[in-house]
């Protein structure tokens, strides 16, 4: 869908990476390895996005770290477009509105680190009807055209889970 507006697949991947989780920081070689592309093609797009003010760069020793520039006037709109393209906005609305006593929802795994791998991992906190949740997940999967894996926990279980979890955690909804 976004390919019709932006012809560079690398630029689209960078926008998804940095605007799905705006606190995410990454450097050139890491991005090139993750995307399976040459450092030169990634560098060209990083430079374009940085010159446009959409990304900001900071030097940390010999490494240049890139991050979404949250003060850019188009930041909210770009973030909104990325979440709509990925389908997370529909997922959250479809699932949480109808479940009952949901306290919060988090993205974990690849999507929380800005990678669109086709599998969305979500953690729901609260008292939830799991049978009804499964029905909603199946509908949401058709809507966003991605596989959805979920965990349902209470706050104490989440705290225990996070003690051994090394990945990213992104709050996407809170009561």
Give a written overview of the molecule.
With 175 residues, the protein is of the alpha+beta class. It folds into 2 domains: 2-78, Orthogonal Bundle (Arc Repressor Mutant, subunit A), CATH 1.10.10.10; 87-174, 2-Layer Sandwich (Beta Polymerase, domain 2), CATH 3.30.460.10. Helix content is 47%, strand content 26%. The protein is built from 8 helices and 7 strands. It has helices at residues 9-20, 28-35, 39-51, 75-86, 88-96, 109-112, 130-144, 155-163; strands at residues 26-27, 55-60, 63-68, 100-108, 119-128, 147-153, 169-174. It has a 4-stranded mixed sheet with strand order 6-5-4-7. Helix 7 links the parallel strand 5 and strand 6 (147-153). Helix 1 crosses helix 4, helix 2 (28-35) packs across helix 3 (39-51) and helix 5 (88-96) packs antiparallel against helix 7 (130-144). The longest helix is centred in the C-terminal third of the chain and has 15 residues, at 130-144. The radius of gyration is 17 Å and the shape is elongated. The relative contact order is 0.14.
């Amino acid at each position: 869908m976004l390919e019709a507006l932006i012809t560079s697949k690398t630029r689209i991947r960078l926008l998804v990476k940095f605007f799905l989780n705006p606190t995410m920081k990454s450097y050139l070689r890491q991005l090139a390895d993750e995307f399976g592309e040459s450092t030169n093609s990634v560098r060209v797009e990083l430079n374009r996005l940085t010159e446009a003010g959409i990304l900001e760069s900071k030097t940390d020793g010999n490494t240049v770290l890139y991050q979404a520039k949250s003060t850019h006037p188009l930041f909210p709109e770009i973030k909104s477009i990325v979440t709509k393209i990925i389908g997370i906005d529909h997922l959250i609305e479809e699932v949480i509105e109808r479940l009952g006593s949901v306290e919060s929802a988090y993205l974990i795994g690849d999507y929380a680190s800005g990678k669109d791998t086709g599998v969305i991992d979500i953690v729901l906190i609260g008292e939830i009807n799991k049978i009804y949740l499964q029905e909603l997940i199946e509908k949401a999967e058709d809507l966003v055209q991605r596989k959805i894996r979920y965990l349902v926990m209470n706050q104490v279980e989440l705290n225990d889970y996070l003690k051994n979890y090394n990945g990213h955690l992104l709050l996407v909804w809170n009561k």
